[in-house]
Amino acid sequence: MASSPTNTATSHPETGSSTSTEVLIHLNAVSPELLEPTLSNLAAAFAGYPALVAIPETAAPNHTRNIDSLRVLPFTPAATSTVNWVHTAGDYLTVYKLLQEQNVGSCLMLGPESHTMQPESIRRLAEATLATSSTDLAVAHYHPGAHEGLVNSGILYPLSRALYCAQPRFPLAIDLGISIRMAERLATAAQRFTAVNQEDALLWPVSEAAMAGFSITEVDVPSRTAPQPANLDLNALLGQILGSLFFDIDARASFWQRLRTTIPPRTVLAGPEQCEQVDVAPMLDAFHLAYSNLHEIWALVLPPHTLLGLKRLSVMPRDAFRLADSLWARIIYDFVLAYRLRTINRGHLLGALTPLYLAWLASHLLLVQSGVPPEQHIEELAQAFEVDKPYLVSRWRWPDRFNP
Amino acid sequence: MWQQVELALSQSAHRALVTLANFLPGLLALLLAVLILTAIGALLAALLKRLLTAIRFDERLSKNSLVPLDWAPSHGPTLLVARAVFWANVVLGFLIGISAFDAAYAGNSQMSFFLLPYLTHSVGAILLFLLGTLLARFLARTVLIEAVNARLQYARFLSVGVKWLVLVLTAATVLDHLEIGGTVVDLAFGILFGGIVLTLSLAIGLGSRDMVSRSLEKTVETEMLPPDPAYKTQTTETLRHF
User: Does residue A36 lie within any of the structural domains?
Assistant: First the structure.
């Protein structure tokens, strides 16, 4: 990258406008005390290559000092966001405005704690979406431990892969590289939310890119500390993220119903790793408590066959507890359908999913503790979602059809 | 004397028949107005639904709107408009019927004086009852799900208690609105409401005893015990959902 031409203008095939090959780096919610290490890390990543670093004024009110080839650009965010561990609609809108103002062809959006990333990873992510590259969306591929990113592994990734036939392992990655036309598309989507003062709404860049027919690539990010949300209430977080995902799925129904291709399974290279033992008893207790109390609510959402599967699960001994991948896929699909049909209040629906997620989690952890590599199980789960996709399509089109 | 009794009875029967004869046309007018306007409403709603479906009203609305519209398939904009037209006609029928009913009586009629306010109060009472029932079901489900996710063993009991609290409140409000029962309703409501609140308080207090003691123990242990890395490892949450 250091040898790449600097500040040369290039014409975009679609927009036709002339843009600079300089990269804009948008730092999302960087804290003032981490600003220096973050900038040093970026300087190492972009040694000799010009880059604009957009920092919120709140993080660096008087910070205008340029470091090496980095030009620091303080900006005023459109609105103060309460969500700072993931990109929101307001962030995408700001990025597009900055790209237009600075006449830059691509942007690197880095989430909080980006100073923990290796400079090479940042550089690869930026290279993937340079104006000269044909990629519109570069998504970071992290390597979390067996006990990290569990919602992503159990729900977000399998759903995104099955419905949108999209490869990225982390559909809600916080480190992204986006082209100008991708930024424009995301800004248009973001505007729908910001127009009604929902700046904190989550957007799903992978599904947006898949729908637009843009090229998507994954960039390996071997090490990175994942920022955690301030509010650690699992129920509220699941409601927020899954509510947004289900809404997105509902809005793009006409697109994903037509997709028939399947993604070839990933090769899981790592052997079974020794991981810390986690006590799954509280998760199983939560599931058993929910089974005896929420059964009538689940009965409104799930078909009899799935309820039978849950009944069998409720009497399984702890050591043999195993939620089949096909059953989990069916549960998620039925909840997506119930969200669409508004079978029950959407807040209630997402709340009723939490104990089922804990049951899946307990099953997954027990499987991993028995020696199965976590990635292998996640791949099998993703394939189960792909295999069962016709069920979702069928029930989406004919929800009133008899379903035993 | 027998003749006088006979005369009094025949006059009473005559008055009752006259009152009934005065009452029936008004009631018939009310029923007719409601039925006719309901039929017109159903016809208009069906026509409107067909027209809006033909011009793809739902699709146009979602395409042209800046704000993301979120409609359930069974509650689309077309259906909403059709239903609004239908119910507007039904309400119009009631209004016409009630004014016809009112017109059928002389201004000094006792029947009109008592029946009309009661009719309007009944509509209010029905609405209150429906709202109360819906609210009770919604709150019961909310409490049940939240309590289960908070891992409270008495989640169902709590949910049923909240449901009955709202239902008792609704029933008391409805009866009060209809002016039935007088002070008996107030008294019964106070006893029932207070009883349910007391039961719930006792149940939660006794049920949460372990939870409170565990919480207190944890606080005391944190303050008293020296920092032990092994102890910290055991208590730290090792799972990261996001």
Answer: yes
Q: Is residue A186 part of a domain?
A: yes
Q: CA-to-CA distance for A19 and A11, rounded, in angstroms?
A: 6
Whether residues B43 and B144 share a domain: the answer is: no
Partners of residue A193 in chain B, C-beta under 8 Å: 68
Which of A226, A293, A345 is facing B240, going by the closest CB pair?
A226
Q: Do B142 and A352 touch (CB under 8 A)?
A: no
Distance CA B126, CA B128 (A): 5
The upper half-sphere exposure of residue B51, i.e. CA atoms within 13 Å in the direction of its Cβ, equals 8
The bridge status of strand A104-110 relative to strand A51-56 is: unpaired
Q: Pick the last residue of a domain from A213, A230, A247.
A: A230
The two three-digit tokens of residue B52, written as one number: 């809006």
Distance, CA of A25 to CA of B46 (rounded, Å): 56
Region of residue A213 (phi > 0: left; psi between -120 and 50: alpha; otherwise: beta): left
Whether residues A169 and A38 share a domain: the answer is yes
What is the model's pTM? 0.81
Q: What is the ipTM of this complex?
A: 0.84
Q: Are residues A88 and A223 in the same domain?
A: yes
Query: Number of structural domains, chain A?
Result: 2
Q: Is A349 among the domain residues?
A: yes
Q: What is the pLDDT of residue B227?
A: 47
Q: List pLDDT tens digits, range A28-41.
A: 777 778 888 888 88
* CA proximity to A12, closest of A136, A128, A138, A95: A136
Whether the CB-CB separation of A103 and A20 falls below 8 Å is answered with yes
Q: Of A230, A250, A265, which residue sits at a domain end?
A: A230
Cβ partners under 8 Å of residue B152, min gap 6? B158, B207, B208
Kindly state whether residues B64 and B154 are assigned to the same domain: no
Name residues whose C-beta falls within 8 Å of residue A155's C-beta, 6 or more positions apart in sequence.
A242, A245, A332, A357
Paired with A108 in beta bridges are A25, A177
Q: Do A351 and B145 touch (CB under 8 A)?
A: yes
**Cβ–Cβ below 8 Å for A147 and B240:** yes
pLDDT tier at B53, thresholds 50, 70, 90 = confident
* Containing structural domain, residue A190: 9-230
Domain range for B61 is 22-104
Same domain, residue pair B94 and B134? no
